[in-house]
Structure prediction request, 402 residues.
Amino acid sequence: MPQDRHDAFAWIDAQRERRDRAGLVRRLSPRPADSPLLDLASNDYLGLARHPEVTAAAAVAAHRWGAGSTGSRLVTGSTELHATLERELAEFCGFEAALVFSSGYAANLAAVSALSGRDALVVSDADNHASLIDGCRLSRAEIAVVPHADPDAVRKALGAAGADEVAEADEGDEADAREARRRALVVSDAVFSVDGDAAPLAALAGASRPYGAALVVDEAHGLGVLGEGGRGAVHEAGLAGAPDVVVTATLSKSLGSQGGAVLGPARVIDHLVNSARTFIFDTGLNPAAVGAALASLRLLRREPERATRVRTVAMGLYGRLTAAGLAAVRPDASVVSVRAPSPEEAVRWAADCRAAGLMVGCFRPPSVPDGVSRLRLTARGDLTEEQVEEAVDVIVRTAPTA
Prediction:
């Protein structure tokens, strides 16, 4: 039957049919407040989202400051609580200053777009998170996508761009050659969200610095898990507080709350306040989320062993799954990736796990850059050894047969 030319959204039906055929339809699955399932799907790495201190802090903040922030950060949306979180987060991670956003996504859009621009070059890892990719797209900069976790490729991309620009300067004039070099950013996840592998941050900094390029690192999966007491992969690499390094982070994973942040030199943070569109034109993060994140941060500072426990659980899952013959990727932080034969098998596997009382993540194209479907498990620091054993038993028992 021919399509009605007046049906503005007829194309949606065709796209849904294609997704159906490819086994890529996604559906919302609302969870109850008290789910009986063992959770290896959420990003609550430290198990703090329901910690009594954290939920109490959220309630106190909402009662004192209101349910919403009431406006953008530059109008009425900044409270003393926001300023306290920014100060303590920067101090904890080893940076001069921090700026809180309404989400980690908004923080990434801000950092990449506001620190680059039409005349800049952004060198981006092929496996970067969608929020970093979207930041690149919005930046209007020249984008060089390089192979995953490859500092040599970063060096070549920066070198090629630099050679082109220096060639345009007056021959033999070193000052003109330096001036000819554009602003450049190297952008990478600290820990990649699909397979859980860590970026070679020290090597990336070494590749960037000879070309005057800044390094922007998304610590979404590193904060609270890696580094001394959970201070992150950048801190662990000895790059915290460096004048050419900027970190973005989310408050919704290890800190069990909501929101995001950018950390870096004070002049960078001041620049974002004055130029980042997702800061200037967005409503400020609600006070309850700020209070919860601050309570989680203080709890992590007081109990640094929580970060160590997450890594222990992740390695325990990996060791048991691979011993059972499954193809799992060795985790560098909290994410354990288990390969599935196909998108359809991955969906069925996750559904069978759920029916057996275990919630796991299911990653399929186009969410995965390599096109490989997998179960994505997130280790949590509050899991017991018995729960880890139970999870492994369910995953192995429900695994697709060869």
